[in-house]
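HUMAN: Would you supply a protein with fold tokens?

ASSISTANT:
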Amino acid sequence: MRAVVQRVSRAAVSVEDEIVGQIGPGLLVLLGVTHDDDAQIAAAMAEKVARLRILRDGNRDESAAVDLTAPILVISQFTLYADTNRGRRPSWSAAAPSPIAEPLVAAFVQALDELGLHVQTGRFGATMAVDSINDGPLTILLESP
């Protein structure tokens, strides 16, 4: 599992000009799933994201989403597993197919919810427009073991 985590001032995701998820100050998470991921990995990744101490609390950048009950916008992003080693056309073979990935994205979201966080999402499998203001800028790439 891979996650690109951005501290944002605000973020929104739209499908066909309809906003399906939006947050104020918090975290934007682009989440990719690969073939050997499972619910345990999804829960561990959610825990890591929720406890990552990158949010501002006053003038300090030392708070986690669980500390501040900061909102999180989660967007499924199979393209995080693009392989561009051969030629100029990316291969998506490392990305898990929808029947595997969709329930694991849902498990990730559920794990964040169970930690008491307000979670918004995109729409799995849809063409989405993501609008965000990166605060910092601060962007971190996380990978499951």
Observations:
- Residues 41 and 144 are 7 Å apart (CA to CA).
- The radius of gyration is 15 Å.
- Residues 98-114 form the longest helix (17 residues).
- The chain has a mean pLDDT of 95.
